[in-house]
Amino acid sequence: MLVLTRKLGESIAIDDNIKIVVVQIKGKQVRLGIKAPKETKIHREEVYQAIQDQNTAASQSSPSDLAALNDELKKK
Q: Please, are residues 24 and 31 in contact by the beta-carbon 8 Å criterion?
């Protein structure tokens, strides 16, 4: 892991198209601004983990689970 020290208003560049800027420091919290292309997916770690968990659960569904889901969706 690379650890960097930045002050308010300073930034970090990742490749040619991602920039992370220290926007605000308040107590123990740091606000970061992220400039990246729209197609770049950016999530908080806990949201990213929830997405991964849901994807894993969905990939382990049995065909009968999917058939039941399909039937439920057809009713709506």
A: yes
Q: Round to whole Å and give the CA distance between 18 and 21.
A: 10
How far is the C-alpha of 38 from the C-alpha of 59, rounded, in Å? 27
Q: What's this model's pTM, rounded to 2 decimal places?
A: 0.68
pLDDT digits (tens, 9 = 90+) for 20-54: 999 999 999 999 999 999 999 999 999 999 999 99
- Residue ranges of domains in the chain: 7-38, 43-76
20 class by beta-carbon count within 10 Å (0-12 exposed, 13-18 middle, 19+ buried) = middle
